[in-house]
Amino acid sequence: MFDDVHSSDEESPVPDADSCSGKQLGELFTTTLQPCSEVSASLKRVCGLHLSQSYDSRKLAVGLSRKTLQLYDVREGGDISISNGTLGQFESGIRGVRFFNGDSNSLLCCTEQGDVFLYDVRCSDNGAVHRFEDTSEGLKKTMTSCDINQNDRVVCATSEVQKNGDTFLLFFDVRQRKYLGCYWECHSDDITNVRFHPSNPDLVASGSVDGLVNVFNISQTTEDDALEYCFNVETAIDSINWHADPTGRDLVACVTTTNDLHLYDVASQDCVARFEREQITKAMHRTSAIDCNVVGTHNYGNGSFFVLAGSNYNKGTECLRTLRYDNKTLLPDRSFGGNRQIVRASVYNEKERYLIATGECGLLALWKCDNEPETTVNGASKGLKQKLHVSHRAKPY
């Protein structure tokens, strides 16, 4: 993770380019969009690392590499404008930003130093109303990500490997504003991402450098019982996300640090699909896999999802596209013109149908999208299964 370090473009033997003609590209990516709004987060050199949008779609929180948390307004027409400026200026890097699911005024921000700050964005003094921290073992633990569950009652923050060799999922009670407990035996390396299930408040998934994606049911009494599923991706994990297919089954998408994409069926523990960086590059109709940048995955809201990916060539300006997932295949979807940076974070508004992205130039860009495609997610190939045995731990709350 970095604070004020920008991408050093990977050496490519040949410049990255489209693998087909402009006419063919237009036939494949039938929708080409231009940003309807773009603002700069700072006049200084800065990278946008984290984004979160309020559930009412009107507020946008941005975590910057200069250890600054900013708040923006998103108007109905798609215009982005600075709201009340800087919410927080921290001593250590921002590691996660998340609005509450049912309260557009409540916002979480976790920092590397080991704090999770709770903000009421209506407050004029821009100060945090509470700070969650775990000092049960003396020093605070170095944090890497955070999320809040569907009913806005439990916060989970994750850690790097600590000096004692353990890595932690830390739980906090939002209403009582206190530390609840932790899990610490299911990962053996830095936990890079944590995501609660979008509708089930008891399910949470975590991804780690150790290559494991764990799914926990935090309503269980012990850590051993809470661990319901474990998927071995066999490479370091950058980010994860929950999706659902038209039949309602839960899927977990995993983006690796090598820009591969894995998709798992949670209930059956099957690997539904795997796309290596080269396959994603081919699906984007680009020529250089070493330049492929997989930003993440987003739900359309109609039982399907898409992958946002771009090219690092020419500082990201050449290519930013989405690929629609359909029956173990990535299909050309939309092309986002006017991008001026290597994208590092994005949010997609399912209701308003627009994409917001930020990245290594510190720009916030919004593209309005057209109607979502009607797709299905079918079939499941047999994949890798693994169940870990861990010692019993007390229920975190």
UniProtKB/TrEMBL annotation:
One protein family per Pfam: WD40
Mitochondrion recorded as keyword: no
Residues covered by region (Disordered): 1-21
Residue stretches of each WD repeat: 184-226
UniProt keyword list: Repeat, WD repeat
Gene3D superfamilies tied to this protein: YVTN repeat-like/Quinoprotein amine dehydrogenase (2.130.10.10)
InterPro entries, A to Z: WD40/YVTN_repeat-like_dom_sf, WD40_repeat_dom_sf, WD40_rpt, WDR89
PANTHER family: WD REPEAT-CONTAINING PROTEIN 89
Protein name: WD repeat-containing protein 89
